[in-house]
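WARN retry 2 of 3 for item q-0093 after timeout on previous attempt; input resubmitted unchanged.
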Amino acid sequence: MTQQTEKSKAILSKKETLEKAAIQMKKEFVGIDSIIDNVISSISSWYLFPEIQTKPVIINLWGLTGVGKSSMIKRLAELIDFNNKYYRFDLGSKRDKFWEVKGMLEDIYQRENGYPIILGFDEFQHAKTIDEDQKEIISTEHRIIWDVLDSGKFSISKNFTVIDRIHALREKLKYVLLTGVKVENGLVTKARERFIDLLDIRWRWHRDKDNMKVYDFDDLLFVDPDQYSYIFELTETLFKSEYEVRDYMVKLSGDETIDFLSEVITIGLTPKTVDCSKALIFVMGNIDEAFWMSNDFNPDVNADEFHEQSLKINIPDIKRALRRRFRNEQIARLGNIHFIYPSFSEKSFFSLIEIELNKLSKEYKTNFGIDVTFSDEVKKLIYKEGVFPTQGTRPLFTTINYLICSKIGIVYYETQVNVPETECVEFSAVDGHLLINFKKDSKTIQIIKEKVELSLDKLRKNRKDDLQAITAVHEAGHAVLAIALLNTLPEYAYSVTADSESQGFVYTKRKLRYTSKKDIKNRIAVQLGGLVAEKIIFGEENITTGAESDIFNATSFAAEMIKSSGMGSVLGAVSVKSVNTNNYLHDDSLNLNTEILGIINEAKALAEKTLNEEIMLLTKISEHLANNPIIKKEQLKALMLEFGSKIDRNKVLNEKNDEFYRSLLKKRKDSLVKGDSGQIELLLPGYTLNQDKTTTGFSEPSN
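OK item q-0093 returned
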């Protein structure tokens, strides 16, 4: 077989390994098939042809916590036989990160220098070099990481303390040789008393009863064995261990020892380069600035909603978010391979539950020979109690451990002591209880009913008390104004929720891509809708606290529109006076606060007017939420169609209502004269509106 044929076979074998790895990972990790395919595709050249690589391959993985970034890469390393060549660095660790990273990378110098390896920089967001005020963080802590990301190479700093120690040893030994000390095969053979005295080796002599020195000459080594570790530290490229250092030195004469120590010092002073240029580097992290939902711990928001929103996050979003933490040239070093993990959908969470329960069933069958099954009710219970959509798998796994794994001891005891004839154990759930059914020949022979403490389920209980009534009216106000002023049907509204930070909430899927001047008051009115609804239904003297975040958001939005977005009387960027705002206008005499307060009051008046016009719809939604913890989109739609007063139903139901500015542009176009070129002349010189029916949009002439 020729060398070329052997190489081809090796490449084909590696390609098959990659394909099998992809198949296996798709079985073990749910909801990220496209991520797996992209990663496998991106590493194929590195894996198949590492010899042609001159710089590290850098792959960036971004996603919410618990979506499988770290575990997937660890599993990948195992499946392609790089388990012992995978080095993971936790940059979020509280330990001294610089020394941890530096020490592990220097270890690579001894073991894998210049060879293909996998490096994983996890929790990368903590390696930030810019603080919240966009000021550079002065720190050398992670500089070594940026060197590796750039060229894959960095120099190991010299250990001058050790070098100085060896230098001092050499000078002492040079001196004792000048006094007549002789050395053969590493042992002092002549003038041994002088050697012991000059080096002050006190344990090599003692005084007898006549106060005379008595020397111990057994195996009098020229170089103390305590020095071997320091010599080895500087000569690790020459020797595999301290024992090899000893074996070498016991063959030397005195002059040869001096020459060797001089060589050790030279080696120590020579910079050492760690070469990771053939490395595959995974950068893993969670950039909150891109994953806006990461701080929302509400377990009642549908996982599919977060999943859908996370799919819209793109590479420009990631790079913009990275600019909040890193310098531009550092972002450039990360390269352009960025894979974005979506948050888990409801289907993905149920698949995870299925996988974990199947693992438990398999383990029990293997160890005890008994089948264990789980009903759909159990799986739904685990989902309701264990899923926080933005927190990934970790809360889910702990819930499975609490609800199921903690009961395995009971199952084992019963099958060994009370019902040893059991062939199958089925877990089911009903009314807050876990039922463990022991079966033989498909017939139940024993049932154990275990009450389980369901913390989230308790928080979701329909209370029908004053607090729920207040929340119902408050959230109904937001919902009605979203329908009437933003032409948007909310997906659902809650008056009882397991979220510890709110009593209720309204969730609207439609995200406004832009804000026009005419929309400002409408949006602020919606934000103030809860407070205004309380006033209308309960009376002003009975309104309650709880609208703090609504008021803050309304004020912040109004201030941004007036001070930053050119929507007020002053066309300019306005900020408080400080050393960092020299390029801003300062609100000394502009009276912008009065302007901001004015638009907030106008929005409040609009909210009152609209809710009074839609008082029947407001009351009906409030009544439903006062008696039920949730109202869904279809129910809101039905109530709107029946009780809406002045609501434009067509606009609300036409969720693609996104042609306003195109229609204005068309009207403007139609008012202009058609030129000989077949193109419409616009007011913007140098630009044309292409009228070809197959294309739309602005195009720049080619000159």
